[in-house]
Design goal:
The protein has 287 residues and is of the alpha+beta class. It has a domain of 162 residues. 36% of the residues lie in helices and 30% in strands. The strands form two sheets. Strands 3, 4, 5, 6, 7 and 8 form a six-stranded antiparallel sheet that branches. The chain has a two-stranded antiparallel ribbon with strand order 1-2. It is extended, with a radius of gyration of 33 Å.
Length: 287
Amino acid sequence: MAYWGERDHTLKSAETDVMGSKAVGLLDDLKKQADALKANEVDKTESLRASAVAVDHSLRRAFLYLNDLGKQLNVVQMPSSFKYNLLTVGEIDGLALRDFFCDFRSKHFIDKDYYGEVHVAYRCASDQVLTVKKGPDDMEKFRDILWQSNIEHKSEQFRNDRKVITHEVFKVRCDFRVQGKIEGDHETGKLKLVTKNVGGFQVDLFNLLAQEMNDTAVEEFAKFFIGRPNKWEDITKRSVLAVRAPAAAPKPRTEPNYVVHREPEPGPSSEKRGLLGSISSLIKKKD
């Protein structure tokens, strides 16, 4: 027995020392695991932030270019090369680009706002109004086609003496809305591009990495969107996100046949200009 003021010489059991060291070891292990998880979370957040920045820069680039392009097109009102094939009616051409519009939407991701979507649209139109007559069997089908393609129209149904609908006359405006949306996935660093009524009454879908939507890609997309000669299809096919066709079987090897080609004489040099430059020159000529 130990008295007050006397030193306690009571021996501690081996079990107490063992449990104490085990407790310390467990805390050390938990601390190491917690530190590792925190480090992984930091790395993951930084990786997500890098993807978000790449998407933000691509969408910002696209918006600035398309917005500037729209301002110039609204002055020029250039003719469209698109020819629309309206089912059961035929080919519609002689259209012009009108009322170009571009806007963007922001998206809050992690801890700040980034460019989230870019919306672009214009009217491919003329003053022509088509008169189309449809019988009872085709009225609903034709009306569905017009609604699905967002084609403005009016219609009037006609009845016989027995009040039975005999036919319907549609007044179809040659005024077609072309639309596009570029949507960013900030977590994966990917872009989804959806267009409607570009060169025809259909919806097209494209997927690119944000890094692939560089200055050249933005300009080629703009050319594709307004119907100018472009290499947009080549860009989308080269994307790492493009679906690859299975490799073809190797062809038998043939002996090379060498032919000497003469170099054509160089023609007069011409200044290389981009899409915005060519449209700007049209505005100057118009002035």
